[in-house]
Design brief:
Blueprint: H1 3-26, H2 33-54, H3 64-87, H4 90-96, H5 100-111, H6 118-137, H7 143-166, H8 172-194, H9 201-226, H10 229-235, H11 239-251, H12 257-289
Length: 290
């Protein structure tokens, strides 16, 4: 099996497990979002710390300022994302955060001096129009939910740009480690005053949130390691299929035709942008060689 095919299979698996994680989050409507994130962070810090110590990598890294910003952005984005998962249909919650590649590109202009062509802004507009269609034709999604989704995408874009900036100075495990490192004290302090005792199956769901997050993160990392980023990035948008299916099976969620159209517009704008960027990058590399 070629690396490209293995990368696609790993991304398909990672995307499915991430979608499964959202099911477990939604099955915890009575547990505060920050409490769920606290339990997820416990899994993350154990895995990251063990891996760092085993590999004898300095755990606190070099560029601590950007690492802290990345960690805090991750906590903020995940909190808003989990909130959306709890209050709106699964597929809609996922789609509302699909604008993150757009904000990653726009913020990249300032962070990593990324070049953005005028045509890309047309693709961005296509995706944004899809978000407006979803909000306008699904009365379960309010303007507030729309703003939370857009804000989540913006903060995710900030986190991704921090990762891009750190990639030349920090080990990937160090970058991952800063999420639970900052998450645990922030969420732990909040839980001292707002603890909600999980009951019965809720303990199982909390464990599964942490477990599925780590499994999905592993296969996501492996996919990006062995295959072209553009290829696996596009594959990651199969999550909309998973979340629609899982939302229907577990929660009886369905959508009208206009909402499906909105989801399609969002995905189309992002995917076309990825394909376009990949084509431009390859052309630039060929011109540099010549």
């Amino acid at each position: 099996m070629s690396d490209s095919l293995r990368g696609v299979l790993f991304m398909l698996l990672a995307t499915f497990v991430f979608a499964l994680m959202t099911v477990f989050v939604k099955l915890l409507p009575n547990i505060p979002v920050l409490e769920i994130i606290f339990f997820r962070a416990i899994f993350s810090i154990v895995v990251c710390l063990y891996s760092l110590l085993k590999a004898r990598i300095p755990v606190f890294g070099n560029n601590k300022t950007i690492l802290v910003i990345r960690g805090l952005a991750g906590v903020t984005a995940l909190s808003m994302n989990y909130y959306l998962i709890q209050v709106v249909p699964l597929a809609a919650a996922s789609t509302l955060t699909y604008l993150s590649p757009i904000f990653t590109t726009i913020l990249g202009i300032f962070f990593v001096k990324e070049k953005v062509s005028p045509l890309q802004f047309l693709f961005f507009a296509l995706s944004f129009s899809g978000i407006l269609v979803i909000q306008g034709f699904d009365n379960r999604i309010s303007l507030f939910h729309l703003m939370v989704g857009i804000s989540t995408s913006m903060v995710m874009g900030l986190a991704y740009n921090c990762v891009r900036k750190l990639s030349s100075t920090e080990h990937p495990l160090v970058i991952m480690f800063y999420f639970p490192l900052l998450c645990l004290p922030v969420t732990g302090l909040w839980m001292i005053f707002n603890w909600s005792m999980p009951l019965g199956r809720e303990w199982f769901y909390l464990i599964m949130v942490g477990l599925t997050s780590q499994v999905a993160q592993y296969y996501l990392t492996r996919a990006y390691q062995i295959a072209e980023i553009a290829t696996v990035s596009i594959i990651s948008y199969t999550s909309i299929i998973y979340t629609i299916t899982l939302g229907l099976i577990f929660f009886g969620e369905s959508f009208n035709s206009m909402t499906y159209l909105g989801m399609a517009l969002v995905c189309a704008g992002v995917i076309i942008n990825v394909i376009y960027k990949t084509k431009i990058t390859r052309q630039e590399k060929m011109e540099a060689v010549l």
